[in-house]
Amino acid sequence: MPPPVQVIVVGAGNRGENYSDYAKIFPDRMQVVGVADPREFVRKKLQARHKIPDQNTFKDWRCVVEREKFADAVLICTPDRLHKDPAVALAKKGYHILLEKPMAVTEQDCTEIVEAIIQNGVIFAVGHVLRYDPVIHKIKLLIDSGAVGDVIHIQHLEPVGFYHFAHSFVRGNWRNEAESSFALLAKSCHDLDLIHHWAGGRRCIKVSSFGSLSHFTKENKPKEAANRCLDCPVEGDCAYSAKKIYLDRVKKGAVGWPVSVICSNSLPDIESVTEALRTGPYGRCVYDCDNDVCSNQVVNMEFEGGLTAAFTMVAFTKEICNRKTTIYGSKGELTCDGHEITVFDFLSNKTTKHTSDGTVPGNFAKGGHGCADFHLIDSFISAVTNGDPTMIRSGPMETLVSHKLVFQAERARLENRVVFCENPCDGESR
Ligand SMILES: NC(=O)c1ccc[n+]([C@@H]2O[C@H](COP(=O)([O-])OP(=O)(O)OC[C@H]3O[C@@H](n4cnc5c(N)ncnc54)[C@H](O)[C@@H]3O)[C@@H](O)[C@H]2O)c1
């Protein structure tokens, strides 16, 4: 039996903590031996959970770089703008890397990461969790088995969810492009990656995109509204009220996401959540925040061979992130509602249904994309254990190509034109 893969968690917030839990379920496969995070609360929490020695706890990722290499791999789960520097530096130290998505916030930084990975021969996975979702993976297997013939058109919808959008993209970490990244990169790099994957890795030739920030703007603030929901006389009429999204939940004992991430220095309870709403970013009026990222965006793509794809991301939905996909092929039509896949065969007129086993152990079973998170970290640990990067579905080169597609689509939106993607490696446009 090979020894457990020893990992250092760089960024012990929501994602770092999620992935680390794998070590609690399979201590013979993975061991958390170090943590770096400036937030004492989360650092100490992870240290206690994994019994990490004091000398292996750090306030900054740079301290890990300064130390002699003392583990096999790092899980880089820092904020979007803090991906490139640790990824490049830690690749140079010889650490295998699981890097959260997006790889980085510019094309050049993404390319630099991939160069560092290749030059240093380390194993690399990006947090494109949907690639590891069993139902979504099944779509690819069905396409590859010829179930719909040649893929002609892909239609894919990402419903972000009305309160999820308010939480993450109006009040929260991904609300402002200068602080994190544009919405298509932060939220939909998963989706363009899937479309590229379902298109069989074919080159995207041209792309157009439209989108904007709707509704969550100062002009839409009701006259009577206060700056904070706790003080607001019209909060009762607002679907996005922070009292409804957080306080009502914690009062019912629901302390999972999104409540779990709004108290930066304590566990969530009625007092700490009330304090967070009184003083922190999550208590602000959604019409009075410093948000600027798109709430709705469409992307149209044409791939080699004439395959077309249409993608929609929209904030104003009941469903949260439960993607809807239809793939139109020469022999049949495949639809997926996020849980079940239906394939209609044109020749036999028969419909077949497909599901996949979404059972996963431990905290990963609690919902969200825990199932996909589990399979991602499981694949990464297997790849490192066996020295076999082919066990990873979101490796450096294809992730770079699909990230470039995201940058090209955003360029098309900003410049209000069709971008021609001449070369998948350069991402040139004219
Ligand atoms: N794969 C997915 O579907 C998915 C979902 C959500 C978030 N993400 C991505 O994961 C990353 C982390 O998101 P999160 O929700 O865990 O955020 P988070 O804020 O909960 O965690 C980030 C952590 O990084 C720490 N950090 C900041 N500076 C640091 C430094 N210099 N050294 C070490 N740690 C530092 C922060 O203190 C924080 O605890 C982001 O890039 C985000 O976009 C991916």
TrEMBL record:
GO terms for molecular function: nucleotide binding. It comes from the Eukaryota. Pfam families: GFO_IDH_MocA, GFO_IDH_MocA_C. Residues 141-362 form the Gfo/Idh/MocA-like oxidoreductase C-terminal domain. PANTHER family: BILIVERDIN REDUCTASE A, BINDING ROSSMANN FOLD OXIDOREDUCTASE, PUTATIVE (AFU_ORTHOLOGUE AFUA_4G00560)-RELATED. Residues 6-128 form the Gfo/Idh/MocA-like oxidoreductase N-terminal domain. This is Uncharacterized protein LOC556929.
